[in-house]
Write a structure and sequence with these properties.
Structural class: mainly beta
Order of helices and strands: EEEEEEHEEEHEEEEEEHEEHEEEEEE
Shape: elongated
Strand content: 35-45%
Number of strands: 23
Oligomer: single chain
Length: 372
């Protein structure tokens, strides 16, 4: 039989903690291909996991949307034969729209300086009505929210000349959770390796040269090949900020790879996801004067068995207990703790590893930890 006790606010402690999980994906060899999470039946091809998700890759090109029709993004599965074709079709996007969206969201304040610009905007002193407004001049302020991820001055660059291209690797939230763990991103294309510096910058491993940016809370990896522009005149040609020269540049002994290898060729993408889990601890305290008597009907003297449709049921007596449970040495045992809501609906059950006797001399505390 069960005994009830109301929790107090001081008996419940909610503690958040962050958990991480590492992922490694190997997209296919064609442009934009990505790997899936999800499987199909080996017999009939029936989809088992309908929530399959994957990593997509895009090319962004600066140009005129009305005159440029080039599309980007994956439309066929890179895991031939293992994923249903219905899962392998994803929307493609115009390359100019990809470039424009990335530029506005993440680089709108970094068009002439890699460390950030303030944009001149008109300042108006409002009057009592529109005719009373007075134009006072210009103020310098950021134009858009560029999703800055720390208080440190970020390094951001996007090429702005006609035909300039960028690469975008989009990781869905079902994979990265709340954010990509800073310092966990590794992208490999052949012998070329890109890593993040924990501050949102993508750098060429072993060189320290900036190659793009990662937006941790949004799963966006943006490749701008900025190393080709920032490397300077020695071997890199002294490219001007925003020029459209891409490909492989040499800076000292460091080979600067082009973007196409990471977007159109086979790569391996590794990262760790992050998710906050809330652990609730319930402190169940049994005072020394509580729960020292049994409520089990079989312990009553006048109880009896009742036969109903060939089944035996124990019929409760008048409450008089048997002699063996009324002595001073008798102690009930606790085997199970149930958590109920205010309507007395059972929500969770906690089983003890072994029966726990109650004490009539000291308090007994049972801790229940519930992760959600």
């Amino acid at each position: 039989m069960s005994a009830w006790k109301q929790f107090l606010a001081s008996d419940i402690i909610v503690t958040p903690f962050t958990v991480n999980k590492g992922f490694t994906f190997t997209p296919g060899t064609s442009s934009g291909q990505f790997a899936y999470l999800g499987y199909t039946s080996s017999v009939s091809g029936e989809i088992i996991d309908k929530d399959a998700v994957g990593i997509n890759r895009f090319i962004g090109t600066k140009g005129n949307y009305f005159t440029t029709s080039s599309l980007t993004g994956q439309t066929t599965s890179s895991l031939a034969g293992s994923v249903s074709s219905s899962l392998a079709t994803f929307t493609q996007y115009n390359q100019t729209l990809v470039y424009s969206s990335v530029k506005q969201l993440y680089y709108s304040n970094y068009l002439s300086s890699s460390t950030g610009d303030n944009v001149s905007q008109p300042y108006i002193f409002p009057g009592s009505n529109t005719s009373g407004d007075v134009l006072l001049g210009e103020v310098q302020s950021p134009l858009y929210d560029n999703f800055l991820q720390s208080t440190l001055t970020p390094t951001r660059f996007i090429p702005t000349s006609s035909g300039a291209q960028i690469g975008v690797i989009s990781i869905p939230s079902k994979l990265f959770g709340e954010y990509i763990v800073p310092g966990s991103l590794i992208i490999k294309s052949g012998s070329d390796v890109l890593i993040d510096d924990k501050q949102g910058n993508i750098i060429i491993s072993g060189s320290g040269l900036n190659y793009g940016n990662v937006i941790y809370p949004q799963g966006m990896v943006i490749l701008t090949n900025s190393a080709s522009y920032s490397a300077g005149g020695s071997g890199a040609g002294g490219f001007l900020y925003g020029s459209a020269i891409y490909g492989v540049a040499i800076y000292g002994a460091v080979s600067i790879p082009g973007i196409s290898g990471f977007i159109s060729g086979p790569i391996t993408c590794s990262f760790s996801s992050s998710m906050t889990i809330y652990e609730t601890q319930y402190k169940c305290t049994i005072r020394e004067n509580e729960f020292n008597a049994t409520l089990n009907p079989s312990a009553q003297k006048s109880g009896s068995l009742l036969t109903v449709n060939s089944s035996l049921f124990y019929q409760r007596g008048d409450g008089t207990l048997n002699d063996n449970v009324t002595g001073s040495y008798f102690s009930p045992y606790v085997t199970t703790v149930g958590l109920y809501d205010e309507a007395q609906n059972l929500l969770a059950i906690g089983k003890l590893s072994q029966p726990l006797p109650t004490s009539d001399t000291t308090d007994t505390t049972i801790l229940i930890n519930l992760d959600m």
